[in-house]
Write the structure tokens for this entry.
Amino acid sequence: MPWTRNEIAARAAAELEDGFYVNLGIGIPTLVANNISDATNVTLQSENGMLGIGPFPLEGEEDADLINAGKQTISELPSSAYFGSAESFAMIRGGHIDLTILGALEVSERGDIANWMIPGKMIKGMGGAMDLVAGVKRVIVTMDHCNKGGEPKFVQQCSLPLTGKAVVDMLITDLGVFERQLSTGRFRLSEIAPNVTREEIAAQTSASYDE
Amino acid sequence: MPWTRNEIAARAAAELEDGFYVNLGIGIPTLVANNISDATNVTLQSENGMLGIGPFPLEGEEDADLINAGKQTISELPSSAYFGSAESFAMIRGGHIDLTILGALEVSERGDIANWMIPGKMIKGMGGAMDLVAGVKRVIVTMDHCNKGGEPKFVQQCSLPLTGKAVVDMLITDLGVFERQLSTGRFRLSEIAPNVTREEIAAQTSASYDE
Amino acid sequence: MSRKYANATEALAGLLHDDMTLCVGGFGLCGIPERLINAVRDAGVRNLTVVSNNAGIDGEGLGQLLRTGQIRKMISSYVGENKEFARQYLAGELEVEFCPQGTLAERCRAGGAGIPAFFTRTGVGTQVAEGKETREFAGQEYIMERSIRGDLALIKGWKADDAGNMIFRKTARNFNQVMATAAPLCVAEVEGIVPVGSIEPDAVHLPGIYVKRLICGAPYEKKIEFRTVRTKEAA
Amino acid sequence: MSRKYANATEALAGLLHDDMTLCVGGFGLCGIPERLINAVRDAGVRNLTVVSNNAGIDGEGLGQLLRTGQIRKMISSYVGENKEFARQYLAGELEVEFCPQGTLAERCRAGGAGIPAFFTRTGVGTQVAEGKETREFAGQEYIMERSIRGDLALIKGWKADDAGNMIFRKTARNFNQVMATAAPLCVAEVEGIVPVGSIEPDAVHLPGIYVKRLICGAPYEKKIEFRTVRTKEAA
């Protein structure tokens, strides 16, 4: 049985270590926040200028001046700090963030990621995604293994415009976990969702990877 | 009669305009602060991270955490603001400071300035002087016309290591005022100290300048 | 010489012209200089280049200047919330330079800090690198990015004094701080103008040197793009 | 996982080794991490490269590490207050890289911000430009300067909480803020460690992400290099 979106998020959350500073993207990555164990002290960064993102505010306590990078209302914590965009990305680009978890349209077997543009269709812009994949120490992608048309998203080569080249360190899909090896630059299938077979994964993947 | 150090400073102070942000160097430039008319609202910048330098503190009110770039104790004003060194020099380098007044060992006829090093003798370092002459909108040098040995300091070409090349806009010495022309890049003698003659100035100057 | 002006129109008097480049603060609808944007709309200047992380939403913020067709070119990182933007862009009426958010912030900082160009890893191997010089440092590939400097910066702060010293509130700081530095002139709107001396010198987020003109734009009805809440039980 | 350590020696345990590069905050004797510098002296590590705007004075601040001969190379903008420095330099015992103060600050910022190199006008046509690439932008000549990144940053703040959030006091901020970013690890000393929540999130000068270890170094007897005062009548 493939993992649910929340199970993917929970698997990603297991990668968080005590003391980590983490930036979470939109979609499945957002769900990671709810899956962080109380014993793990993790600080969430928002690229619009905040460290220490709190939970969504209580109804009636929303503050238009307090939003995350997805423009959702959030709350602050006693340990929060605010800063401007230039400082926020100095922090990201300078390698001070330990981990980012992002969604993707495609991931290639060399660790390329495409998640910002579908030519002629989606022209929203890359936001902070290119900065995050280039600057953060470790990049984890969470995504469905296939798109809605049933086609593989973990591919030999991305067909969509790239967000970053050879930047993905780990890929978590509903079917399993792939870790990219420093030595070879190739992904290795390191974990399989319950009752999913290696053959099923291979059949839904056009990327080449190690077992 | 040549101008005194304080008269040089007073002449330099006449270049300040209402609303100006100004950085003053050490020596004669420091005296400029005392010569600013009350009608002129000028904000003094200190490159160690302050806008709005106040007067020296009252005795007993010195604060080791509140010094100027010359490491002298100062005071703050109600309008003061503090910031770090990177921001301070972003401000300087970015052309946000209207005017800097500096001392010099030598000024050349092309507007070069040498004020940081005498090889084999003075090895203190350039501090913020190179950043100031390169970044501030207008650079005024105040200095004695000749050194202690009676040799000209306003020269054809600097013999000492440069602080900046073609950066001096105005030179005020005890003998007169020289303004560098945008069109030609050459200095023009625009003002003479009382009872000093053009011939006396020429005799004590090795730089070529327009009358 | 007071920085205070009665309203946005007066604060912008003499500063606006066709074909100019505006650096505008804000992130989404958070911390946008809405009074000043409306005054730019009313002034009717055209053919503008606007540097701003986002383009507002339809009819809000910079969305207003899109609707009137006053913007010729946007330099932005994300415009996903604006349908009119998409329409004009696909119709070829609007020129767009997509710039990664961090690179945009850094290009504006560089513009304000006298740095004409710098190297970054962001965008290496992507469309963003096309036509740009690349170079290796310590075995890593970097792109050379150029600074951005506008003719006029428009920002929104929380409080300011008449010396121009300003503080921002929470995540409404975002691009406002850096945009203020990226033009020779910055006009700001704030929620309150306070007496000189009431902002602690150590607490200033943006020193007054950057802020040449100032209006109080209160009262504000701040818009929220995505209202997300939790219920008391979940808390 | 607390950031608090009992004293400077414990805070530096396991972090010091010969031949390392230290990025040290402070301007003159203002805002220098004196407890940490003393602990480096006591640890006896040698052959250090120290990035610091100044080199202390004789027997104070970094002057201590000069006296013990632990420093091999200094990267500084101004060292005029230190006679031992001058002696070692002229005797060829000490390597010195003079760097303009603003370029030093920017090189450290770049090191902390993932920017390997940038262009600046500072130093064009001077000794500082020797051996460096120059390039024209818009008809102006610029020098390419490389970032600085150390192995360890030592800074002094005023107050910090156990999340590492820090505020500085007056001009003691100086290089401390930027040095904290310019190494993978920063150890800080402050005058008081306060409970998490007592520093207003909008007032933080240095977010806790940069500060990995923390000591309270109080009480401090802060030194003044040049005591300048006015008399009451003059006021």
